[in-house]
Amino acid sequence: xxxxxxxxxxxxxxxxxxxxxxxxxxxxxxxxxxxxxxxxxxxxxxxxxxxxxxxxxxxxxxxxxxxxxxxxxxxxxxxxxxxxxxxxxxxxxxxxxxxxxxxxxxxxxxxxxxx
Amino acid sequence: xxxxxxxxxxxxxxxxxxxxxxxxxxxxxxxxxxxxxxxxxxxxxxxxxxxxxxxxxxxxxxxxxxxxxxxxxxxxxxxxxxxxxxxxxxxxxxxxxxxxxxxxxxxxxxxx
Lengths: 115, 112
Prior knowledge:
- The complex is a heterodimer.
- By secondary structure, chain A is an all-beta fold.
- Chain A contains no helices and twelve strands.
- Chain A has strands at residues 3-5, 10-14, 19-21, 24-26, 32-39, 46-52, 60-61, 64-69, 74-79, 88-96, 104-105, 109-114.
- In chain A, strands 2, 5, 6, 10, 11 and 12 form a six-stranded mixed sheet that branches. Chain A has a four-stranded antiparallel sheet with strand order 3-9-8-7, with no helix packed on it.
- The N and C termini of chain A lie far apart (41 Å).
- Chain B is built from no helices and eleven strands.
- In chain B, the strands form two sheets. In chain B, strands 2, 4, 5, 6, 9, 10 and 11 form a seven-stranded mixed sheet that branches.
- Classes of the chains: A mainly beta, B mainly beta.
């Protein structure tokens, strides 16, 4: 079965610190897409970053970057210089041909940025 | 603004009633997805349409149905509503299967 595991239900850091959210997944596929979505208190789902499994280079989007370890099936999200507006639920997800390209979601990590 | 528009934003209705949620995808996106998110839960995939045809079905109840129209907007119909149907319903669109999804702001449904 294809699964996504986010082992940290909740994290909190001080503003301006760097924080890393962990995500592991399980699939027998070789080609797939990985995502991090953010859901702030407004409840809107916002795409943070996307990684294609065939690309070795880690994706980066401003203060957000990933550490993609394909062999370990790990896809962690690093947020640098964290800001109060980063407070949100963060969901890791992936899709594969085997999942009919439907997103398989993790349970989420609640991130709180403290002033 | 993701470009995906959902209406209404909030809906309060009684048990046993029927409601229709509407979604307009981003311009040019052919795929529309519907998700349900109960309080403090993850997203549950309901159904996907691609260019007017049903592409994939998830954990969608028989009381729920959806369709995508020729202009690509989609509607999710929920009938015989129960208290447990109270949730945030998201619509998302993507240009093609396998691409990232852009989500609308959701419709918050409260069944009383």
